[in-house]
Amino acid sequence: MAHKFTFYNTLARRVEEFVPREEGRVSMYTCGPTVYHYAHIGNIRTYIMQDVLIKALGFAGYDVKRVMNITDVGHLSSDADTGEDKMVEGAKREHKTVMEIAKYYTDAFFADFDAVGNKRPDIIEPATNCIPEFIHMVDTLLKKDFAYVAGGNVYFDTSKLKDYYVFSSEVEKEALQVGVRDDVEEDPNKRNKTDFVLWFTKSKFEDQALKWDSPWGVGYPGWHIECSCIAMKHLGEYIDIHCGGVDNIFPHHTNEIAQSESYLGHEWCRYWFHSNHLNDKSGKMSKSKGAVLTVSVLKEKGYDPLVYRFFCLQSHYRKPLEFSYEALDQAVAAYGKLVKKVAELKEDGPVDEAVKKDFEGRFADAVCGDLNTSMAITVLIDVLKAETNGATKLALIRSFDRVLSLDLEGHAKSLSEGTSVDPEMESYILDAIERRANAKKNKDFATADAIRAELLEKGVEIKDTREGVKWQLI
Ligand code: AMP
Ligand code: ZN
After folding, report:
1. Which end of the chain is more exposed for a tag (fewer CB within 10 A), N or C?
2. How remote is the CA of residue 32 from the centroid of ligand 2, in Å?
3. Position 72 in a domain
4. Which ligand is nearest to the CA of 319?
5. pLDDT value of residue 421
6. Which ligand is nearest to the CA of 283?
7. Per-residue pLDDT at 348 exceeds 90
8. Domain annotation covers residue 327
9. Mutation probe of ligand 1 site: the residue of 76, 110, 247 with most atoms within 8 A of C-beta
């Protein structure tokens, strides 16, 4: 029996108990990145919270299968089918082909995704792999009279639905209708303002790089269709949980539901998990704003990616989170303290199973209760303070790390190894670091690099951090 699990279901507009369709199993779909630029640390916050969700479900006893798409075609700069094609925009900016851009930014995305301790989805599918599936769904929607062709494009007809704004309360619906009416760029082909493109053949992009033949002419898919098709391709007609950031609720997820349920003729997904945004002082972080702050950039500045994860876990997924270096530095200090405490623990006897069970229960209540990650960290701190032996504490830290993925134990090991070299070796390392600093000061980078290589050969890795040069044995 799985532990009781609750989270905020946007479709129900409240925290609900999660009950999957099949006992013990969860099928989950995650909207993946649009790979025209680096994923910023805000995007990565969303993927961290989703990672905690799947791992918490695992902790609760569920077997989770998760699918994610990679948007490499069709996403325009406005989510409402207007503006430039994001991939073409990226290719122009960097004088590369769209596929080169997609490959480069997909790799960069996963480097950061992995670095923050995320488990990769079981299936990852680029949109450009699924053109026949998209065409089949569009064709079926036309046959079922949920879609129409106008001006060469295929549109979904939202007037055919009883309730298009499925996520919204009556008040929000009115606000949305006003918002949609005020959309400045109008497409004269649309019968209703909320209709959206399923397949483009006539677009304003003469230079659209990726095009495929279709019954409606040579063109490319709309953005929303890819998630519906990729989810169905791998998870069948029903999914349990669909995830994304709050900006995905409208129009993306609203449109996904419209087309999927019209195609299937029944309810598609019962639980919708949305995490809130990371903002900086100037507002929501956005890829299109220019300079993109990534996990890799944080790493270059000397911040451990897992400290960024820790920073995210300290706040609740439903609240906006403001990023600042001051706040991140506080997380560095708090994380460092935890690592130090863990480094002091010893495998000093048998695990006290009763104490372990008690703390595991508290931890499960936190993570399975609307993903209360800050409470989970409090439980971890309580473990470190508890009146029990080191072996029990280490067993609990390992157990919690199945969800938190903070690798406190790994960091604690390198901390103790880093200081456990003999004094002669230590003075050699410190001397080499000083020689390297002098070389750098004199702009003699060749010597500086040679010293780094010399240390590496002796099994010592050095890192330049904001707090100075750090070293560890590898
Ligand atoms: P994109 O690559 O722009 O399609 O976004 C990838 C994911 O990041 C989506 O699930 C978005 O909802 C989410 N996202 C976008 N901006 C932010 C932000 N500032 N903070 C957190 N998540 C975001
Ligand atoms: Zn999606």
Report:
1. N
2. 7
3. yes
4. 1
5. 66
6. 1
7. yes
8. no
9. 247
SS3 category, 387? coil
The CATH number that applies at residue 400 is: 1.20.120
From 383, 414, 445, the end of a domain falls on 414
The residues whose Cβ lies within 5 A of ligand 2, an ion, are 31, 227
Question: Got the DSSP string for 1-15?
Answer: -PPP-EEEETTTTEE
Atom of ligand 1 nearest to the CA of 30: 10
Are residues 237 and 108 located together in one domain of the fold?
yes
Residue 430: the pLDDT is 81
Ligand 1 atom nearest residue 43's Cα: 8
Q: What is the residue-averaged pLDDT of the chain?
A: 90
Helix extents (H) in 283-422: 295-300, 305-313, 325-343, 353-368, 373-385, 390-404, 408-419
Residue by residue, DSSP assigns 162-199 as S-S-TT--HHHHHHHHHHHHT-SS--TT-SSTT-EEEE
Q: What residue numbers bound the domain in which 190 lies?
A: 6-280
Residue 251 preceded by cis peptide, ω within 30: yes
206 in any annotated domain:
yes
Considering the domain architecture, whether residues 154 and 225 belong to the same structural domain is answered as yes
Residue 377 belongs to a domain = yes
Same domain, 114 and 51: yes
Shared-domain flag, residues 395 and 452: no
User: What local confidence, expressed as pLDDT, does residue 332 receive?
Assistant: 93
252 alpha carbon – ligand 2 mean position (Å): 6
Domain end among 262, 280, 298:
280
**Of the ligands numbered here, which is closest to the C-alpha atom of 67?**
2
Both tokens assigned to 134: 């998209």
